[in-house]
Design a protein that fits this description.
By secondary structure, this protein is mostly helical. Helix content is 76%, strand content 0%. The N terminus is likely disordered.
């Protein structure tokens, strides 16, 4: 009987460690996407090389493709700004992540045309409807 209690405690600790690991990974990925968005903003403001914008957007896309997997059941506690809606509305969250991924793809495509106005509009859409659209519903307010 003592073994069962110890084993159960160990499994519980393992689950907590696993949740902390996935939370740390998703926080790192979100920070990385924020850094990429900052790079896009800076490049567009400086009327810089749109190839850089395209590269940043493609990096965001690569990260976005994995976002739904970074919110498995049980990773809703601990040091996280994720709202419970992620887990209670998984379909909505997945749709929001796919929308952001598609908007990042649209930005990469727009930047690839060499048209600054198109890239700027696509960046605004990604920020408002991609990142912002998801954060508004699925992330604790920052401030």
């Amino acid at each position: 009987m003592i073994f069962a209690v110890v084993a159960g405690s160990t499994l519980g600790a393992g689950s907590i460690l696993a949740a902390d690991g996935v939370i740390a990974k998703r926080q790192a990925d979100m920070k990385a996407m924020g850094k990429e968005m900052g790079g896009i903003k800076d490049t567009l403001a400086a009327k810089g090389d749109l190839a850089k914008v395209q590269a940043h957007a493609e990096t965001i896309r690569k990260i976005m493709a994995d976002v739904p997997a970074l919110f498995p059941a049980g990773s809703d506690t601990g040091p996280t700004d994720a709202l419970p809606a992620i887990w209670t509305d998984q379909a909505g969250f997945d749709t929001a992540a796919k929308r952001a991924d598609g908007l990042a793809d649209a930005l990469a495509t727009a930047a690839g045309t060499g048209e600054t106005a198109a890239a700027t509009a696509a960046f605004a859409a990604l920020g408002k409807n991609g990142c912002g659209g998801c954060h508004q519903t699925y992330r604790k307010p920052q401030g």
